[in-house]
Amino acid sequence: MPRVIGIDIPGNKRLIISLTYIYGIGQVLSSEIIIKLGLDPNLRAKDLSGEDVGRINALLQSEYVVEGDLRRQVQNNIKRLISIHSYRGMRHRLGLPVRGQKTQKNARTRKGKKRTVAGKKK
Length: 122
Known about the structure:
The protein is mainly α. It has helices spanning 15-18, 27-37, 50-63, 67-83, 87-94, 108-111, and strands spanning 3-4, 7-8. It is built from 6 helices and 2 strands; from the N terminus they run ββαααααα. It has a two-stranded antiparallel sheet.
């Protein structure tokens, strides 16, 4: 199991898929990295040499924001929205959907378990 920027990527999968296990790298970015380094996308990750892993590490650290730095950046953006009391920040703080989704029927995982409300007595 090769270790790329502190993450164990699965060795039995193709390289283009294995790189997507790193936070912030999808299939498009993965294929872009492979083309830049001149690697074979069908190569299994366990067949990478130590030199190839080093080149991938160097490229990711110099040109891309991934893993811990990206997570920190996203969390700081959310904290900023909360601190300026924007609508999106309020939705984050309350644990409700942020991007305009309905909450009547769906969004149970964010809102919590469905609770029955008793009717009014007359």
